[in-house]
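pinging the channel bc i need a second pair of eyes. not urgent but kinda urgent?? the chain im working w is below, pasted from the shared doc
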Amino acid sequence: RLFETLSRQRGRTPWVAASLIVAISVSSCGISYSKTPTTIPSSGVPFGLEQRQASTTTTEVPKPTKAIASLFWVNGNHLTPSSRLMNAPVTLSEALNNLVSGPNATESQAGTSTAIPVGTTINSAKVSGDIATVDLSQSFASATGQNQILALGQLVFTATEIPGVTQVVFDLAGSPVEVPASNGALIDGPVVRSDYQSLLSAAPSQG
């Protein structure tokens, strides 16, 4: 009986040992945790999680408040442009109103003048397609001969400096009028830069 009891006890020993080994193994593989935040080094971060999203914020570029416009003045028997700083974008009305106001001190010192009669105003200046319709006040009618041609050239070249404008139609105090080209021929309808091309001088002045 003693032998049998010992045999039975010996037979249970391997099972006890195995149970202890399993318990130790499970204990050694347990997941540790911490109650406080812990910084993980970059080498321990899974691939891709540390990459930052590209910023989608765009910066709006402010629009310019000023722009340079070309106004055409009389220099002898020819026309010459000068640059003026105006509000942006430069409109047809603003450019022509500056023109009929006459040259400033800098432009006058450069030897330029105007053939547009004093007192002339722009009643209206409208753009439709590539055609500008300019209604001049009655005062413009006081210009005659070559002065009238020079004055018209000033208006045409200044107007066609506005982007998109290639032709100009003139009204006088609200009524359509024929206007002379640089060669003296009367034109009933739109005029273009080439109708006054011979009036241009080579060297521009700066104002």
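so Residues 96 and 159 are 7 Å apart (CA to CA). and Residues 1-29, 203-207 have pLDDT under 50 and may be disordered. — does that match what u expected or am i reading it wrong
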